[in-house]
Amino acid sequence: MAAYNKAVIKSVDMSDVMQQDAVDVAKEAVSRNVIERDIATYIKAEFDHKYSHTWHCVVNQNYGSYVTYEARHFIYFMLGHLSVLLFKAG
Question: What PANTHER family does the database record attribute to this sequence (predicted)?
Answer without folding.
Answer: DYNEIN LIGHT CHAIN (PTHR11886)
